[in-house]
Design brief:
2 copies of one chain form a homodimer. Chain A has 14 helices and 32 strands. By secondary structure, chain A is α+β, with helices and mostly antiparallel strands. In chain A, a hairpin with a 2-residue loop joins strand 27 and strand 28.
Chain lengths: 580, 580
């Protein structure tokens, strides 16, 4: 984004050639568009006090009285604020205007025939999405292993017939409110008119709430005529000018509608370089629609009104080798497996003796877990898997958080530095590693997501094993969207996405699904952690193992399926899930 | 945003007048812009099996062999993915091109003089921000109460001289990475050229990753000539056409550069209605820059590439009266004040017997806190204030969360239904109430924030008491940006902002500062909770009170100030804080 700096040195008419004023221009990427101006004002020096004591006392008395009176008046007289409606807005006139213009434009060529191109037409979204799995004609042995079959689940089926209508109604209502809260005029479709004499910014104009900016890029390039004129209209702010240009008439300075006109086109265009917009209707994150027009032409553009994104930066510590304890916190949740947890801790300490380990524990009879750099949190019994995950990550104070399950074992191959390096050097937010089973089989599960729009019934989510593409410079890594439960991630991003505490037992991909559009995810198969106990061998299981499996995989897992499906249907507004 | 539905019924050339094809148009606000097409494909029926058993066995053998060979080949031959660089990008050619064009356009009128308008110029951002408080010439009694003085804090002063340079360097580096991760081409300043024969969409075009959309609003309105031609260029996707129009030559179908040309303008424009864009370079949240040009003219617009925002909707329960237990969870943190905590719980139960209360507890010797619908979480001793707040809200499973301090008392005036009503009916995210002290004085603290850009040194945050505007329909409520510690909020929003666990002792506004641009905040003074113990009376303090105050307000609070200032400086990138 472009910042034009206007440095003031003298408040007088500047003649051409005189260089009292200097223009400096600077490309500032992404910043809102103010124009810097005068050097900062200085505090006026204090006034000297009067010499006579009695006079001073009289003055003081008067001032105190005035002060008290002022304070009283101030507290009794409400400030002249205008009350603002913050209820969700219906479709505005502007939206209707834009929509109508587009329809008219498209209808012009209705009579010209065309032949469909099948291959492309098929890629466009359908009016609804398809919720079907694959069926096989012949079931070959190992077919599922070699060519995993796609299964499909119509999510509305988890609700009883009798309650389904009500659930649909409520979901539509909640979604509608959500859309009204999260969308602004900056999401509207706007089409630029052809052959318009107006030059204007189509994107990238931003102002902080209640602040003022110069609107960049405005001009009128029109054929010779008697008089040239442009007008501005806004709904959440006012227009003004930062400087006067001779021979330009201005009407509506400081108002929501302003007109500039002149006999000289160059004067008008010079004036247009000084048009300002001031946001007057407070909102923390919205956009105003500006209409900029001249005789016979009207353009529309938006100005985003918002505080810049407040960063959440972490101090990475001194340059050079990564200080792992300052950069990374290890987080895990434990239940019924204190022995495995202790094995995990011991294995971590061999390689990272001072790294903080945060443990969320929802055992019925919690035991102490102690040691340096260990933080142990006790939860209500059985509160659950994702509740525990959310708790653990909520306590992390370092730049990165490493998620591990309580039955992992660190080995010499568990080089966290590699994972830190990839996040320090790229724009990725989360990178998973690989988990090696007792059998020696190493798994770096990767999934990709595809979302098809489904209209009012909700979208269709398609989950497929695999990844999107390899990563340049990191030959063992690929970009995916779902990875194993062994990953390093930016703490602020994980906290922003969160682990839904309603998921008590089995859940995994829900985190990545909630992270869609937020997390940029990768998976590297050269950072490996061992998995103490994935395979359920009938011998070699301790009592706690047995109790764990009984809890973790209850005979009837229908409650779990019910909860997960209900959440996909209602919370995420899906109608269908397909996966292989 | 506009959705154009193209329904296919027959794959043949449609003559003008024949209505086998129907166009339906539908205004869809905010949705990405696909075009719906054919009815969903149906699964082909399974093939009947052969009658002879030996033939079947041979066929099976062949198929199994082929299948195994295919699987082997598939696992050995890597898919033809192109490796992608995900390191932060430097300024692209496109950005430079846009910047240069704007400079040229502005320099045209350099020789025309102007006179500054002081009142407006002063509102524009300066080249740096001012970090000054107010000094008073005469210190009147009660002056600070009536007219609170503004104090200013230059944040860099909390660092030692010797370490300041290094801290600045690291902060600049972290901020730079943050910007590269969070900005896309959709933030660039783009200016539409005047008198261009091109009609095109300037905002609102969006595609889901790896999907295809029709680009709306494209047209060429040009004076008569021999041949009309347009070209398209993209960097993260390819162009194609969904249908063929006679007399239009197409070059580059399915590629990143495509050209359309025709002798007939109307045919070209009809063809332009079928231009599609397919995202080919996966990224969860980015934007592609499309150049759309014709002879002598070049326009630029962006297409957002991202999954739609996955909603996090909560089921509000049946229509009618608010089911408070289903809608609201009360969250609090406790330390050394079990007696007050119990008073709080007892008072809540008088009015809301089944509402869930989540308690984060970082006492050194935790005591059990039991009762129905109580969730008690034990933290490591003294882990801290915001860590406890973050823990508590991380466990909430209802649509709304009510924050209370552990020394509040609910009364008949603590009508949570009023707070629920305002959030259910408006786009607000958080609404604070009022806290009544022992003395009877009722406080609904409200603050507003103002952020001035400060360039490389960081921004200046100005905190002022007061509010922005009243709310229509809610005469006791106003919109502000910081409120008391008694508020009802949307759970997903509070979890998204979070309470920074690095803030161990005193902190309050940091939550609202982290929420800038995310939370829409209000304050209502007619929902009141009593405060058991704000005033530190020397008599009537229990032993636990004394221990609490000793911990909460240590003699030297410099550590706290240090931490808070360091966080403001580094994490949020401020250089200055002023407040009254």
């Amino acid at each position: 984004m472009f910042v034009t700096a206007l440095e003031k040195r003298d408040d007088e008419i500047i003649q051409p050639g005189a260089r009292s004023w200097s223009w400096s221009t600077e490309l500032v990427r992404g910043a809102p568009l103010p124009s810097s101006c005068c050097p900062p004002p200085t505090t006026p020096p204090p006034n000297p006090t009067s010499s006579m004591w009695s006079q001073k006392r009289k003055v003081l008395m008067v001032m105190v009285t005035l002060g008290l009176v002022a304070a009283l008046i101030r507290s009794w007289t409400p400030r002249p604020y205008t009350s603002v409606d913050v209820r969700p807005k219906q479709e505005t006139k502007m939206e209707k205007l834009l929509a109508d213009r587009l329809v008219l434009s498209e209808r012009k060529y209705d009579d010209i025939p065309y032949r469909v191109k099948e291959s492309v037409l098929g890629l466009l979204a359908h009016n609804g999405c398809v919720c079907e799995g694959e069926t096989r004609s012949i079931n070959l042995p190992y077919a599922n292993l070699l060519f995993p079959r796609v299964s499909a689940q119509n999510l509305h089926t988890v609700f009883k017939e009798s309650e389904l209508d009500e659930v649909k109604r409520r979901r539509a209502q909640e979604y509608n409110s959500f859309q009204k809260r999260s969308q602004t005029a900056a999401d509207l479709l706007i089409v630029a008119e052809a052959n318009s004499p107006l030059q204007y910014p189509t994107q990238g104009v931003e102002v902080r709430p209640l602040k003022t900016i110069l609107i960049p890029g405005l001009a009128l390039i029109q054929k010779t005529r008697e008089r040239y004129s442009v007008n501005f209209t806004a709904t959440m702010g006012t227009f003004d000018i930062a400087a006067f240009v001779d021979e330009v008439a201005i009407k509506g300075e400081g108002e929501m509608q302003m007109t500039l006109s002149s006999r000289y086109l160059s004067a008008l265009n010079r004036q247009l370089q000084f048009v300002t917009y001031t946001n007057t209707l407070f909102h923390p994150n919205t956009a105003d629609t500006v209409q900029f027009g001249t005789d016979g032409h009207q353009s529309v553009f938006t100005i985003k009104v918002r505080h810049g994104v407040t960063p959440k930066l972490y101090n990475p510590g001194p340059k050079g080798e990564y200080n792992m304890s300052a950069l990374v916190t290890i987080a895990t949740k434990t239940f019924l497996r204190y022995d495995k947890l202790q094995d995990l801790i011991d294995s971590i300490r061999q390689f990272y003796p001072t790294i903080t380990i945060v443990i969320a524990d929802d055992n019925e009879h919690p035991k102490p877990v102690t040691g340096p750099y260990i933080e142990h949190y006790i939860m209500p019994f059985g509160k659950g898997w994702f509740a525990g995950r959310n708790l653990a990550v909520s306590q992390v104070t370092t730049k990165y958080v490493l998620w591990v399950d309580d039955d992992f074992i660190f080995t010499a191959n568990t080089k966290l530095e590699k994972l830190v390096d990839i996040l320090e050097s790229t724009t990725l937010d989360l990178v998973g590693g690989a988990v090696r089973e007792v059998t020696g089989y190493k798994a770096s599960y990767r999934q990709t997501f595809s979302l098809d729009q489904g209209g009012e019934d909700g979208d269709c989510l398609h989950i497929r094993r695999g990844f999107h593409h390899p990563i340049k410079g990191y030959p063992n890594c690929v970009v995916a969207e779902g990875v194993v439960n062994f990953f390093l991630a930016r703490t602020d991003k994980v906290q922003q996405v969160g682990f839904d505490p309603r998921l008590a037992r089995v859940a995994h991909l829900e985190f990545f699904i909630d992270g869609l559009g937020i997390l940029h995810v990768a998976s590297c198969d050269d950072v490996i952690v061992d998995h103490a106990s994935k395979i359920k061998l009938p011998w070699g299981q301790s009592e706690s193992d047995k109790a764990y499996y009984k809890f973790r995989y209850p005979p009837s897992s229908s409650d779990t399926v019910q909860t997960r499906s209900e959440l996909f249907y209602f919370k995420n507004r899906f109608q269908c899930l397909t996966r292989n």
